[in-house]
Specification:
This protein has 13 helices and 11 strands. By secondary structure, the chain is of the alpha/beta class. The strands form 2 sheets. A 6-stranded mixed β-sheet has the order 8-7-9-6-5-10, with helices on both faces. Strands 3-2-1-4-11 form a 5-stranded parallel β-sheet, sandwiched between helices. Helix 2 (27-39) links the parallel strand 1 and strand 2 (43-47). The longest helix is centred in the middle third of the chain and has 19 residues, at 180-198.
Length: 332
């Protein structure tokens, strides 16, 4: 495990957050829950039938893990909350009862009610199914209208790029073609993720194929407009654009293309103009530079909900739980 993930786990321990794992009958989740609880990374709530959980992982020590069998509890307070939140969208009380018994909805309702600080799911559920309840119930953070994602890219700690080799790339997994407002949201959320999870001071570069007007195109205009939105909304952020990747990363190029910029040549948060660029970019750095890509990490929610890869290991789950705990600290 790299130094960053060790640090993330240690920070999470001090926060003592409660994280609900909605897929509580999945063996990888059960194994992760036991480890999270044993190491004190977070307090864990597993959603599932206790007998089924015991049968799936008979050797798992779940002492201290809270197990909730949704089918055996009074669902009324959760259904009523869901009904109140969604009645204007056409939900009736019977549908609210039905949805509240779905672990993905129940877990998010626990977070909404303050019974948990965040939720993690996705080991056996599609991304859309995980994020939909969160969008409907928790919604986005103040000042943010777009849920997005980022990857923490970990290069060699002696790398000349990033902060001790750590960088944030966004958005590489969620929004195919963000407009200027969405791009601004992605930039602000990625900066917050840089602080909360990676522990770095963000220097945010909005990337393009143009640097400071070197090319004229509507795609460049989109990035330039996003910069102005971010600067207006978050004057505290160190942010600049539009910047080509070399101008964002290489000081000598920055001096030529963006003289006087406080970000150019020093960027550690890279905001890609669309999903094609972001997805290609992180995979190129991962494969060609040997970087570790941690994520995708969901961002922009009022309270954290994270989506696992369906190919995740139990160790991956532990790390995501720890990161979710850290994210919850910036929402309080």
């Amino acid at each position: 495990m790299n130094d960053l993930l060790t640090t993330v786990r240690e920070k999470a321990k001090s926060l003592k957050k409660t994280i609900v794992l909605a897929e509580g009958e999945e063996p990888r989740i059960i194994t992760a829950a036991a480890k999270v609880q044993a190491e004190g990374i977070a307090k864990v709530v597993l959603l599932g039938n206790p007998q089924v959980i015991a049968q799936k992982c008979p050797g798992a020590n779940l002492d201290g893990v809270k197990i909730i069998d949704i089918s055996a509890i009074d669902i009324e307070p959760y259904a009523q909350l869901l009904y109140e939140l969604r009645k204007n969208k056409g939900m009736d009380i019977d549908s609210a009862h039905k949805f509240a018994r779905n672990p993905l909805y129940f877990g998010v309702l626990m977070v909404k009610r303050g019974e948990a600080d965040g939720m993690v799911a996705g080991s056996i559920n599609a991304t859309g199914d995980v994020l939909r309840p969160a969008l409907q119930i928790i919604k986005t953070a103040p000042g943010i209208k777009t849920v997005s994602s980022c990857f923490i890219m970990v290069l060699d700690k002696n790398s000349k790029y990033g902060e001790n080799g750590v960088m944030i790339f966004g958005d590489c997994a969620v929004n195919p073609n963000p407009d200027s407002n969405q791009l601004a949201d992605i930039a602000m959320a990625s900066a917050d993720s840089a602080v909360a999870i990676a522990g770095i001071s963000p220097k945010v570069a909005l990337l393009s194929f143009s640097t400071k007007g070197s090319a004229k195109h509507e795609l460049v205009d989109k990035v330039a407009a996003a910069l102005e939105i971010v600067r207006s909304a978050r004057p505290d952020l160190s942010v600049d654009g539009e910047l080509q990747a070399d101008a964002a990363l290489v000081p000598t190029v920055a001096d030529l293309k963006a003289p006087g910029s406080t970000v150019a040549g020093k960027a550690n948060v890279l905001i890609f103009p669309d999903l094609q660029a972001g997805n290609i970019g992180y995979k190129l750095v991962q494969r060609l530079a040997g970087a570790e890509a941690i994520g995708p990490i969901c961002q922009g929610f009022n309270k954290p909900v994270n989506d696992l890869s369906r190919g995740c290991s139990s160790e991956d789950v532990v790390n995501v739980v720890a990161m979710t705990a850290l994210q919850s600290a910036i929402n309080n």
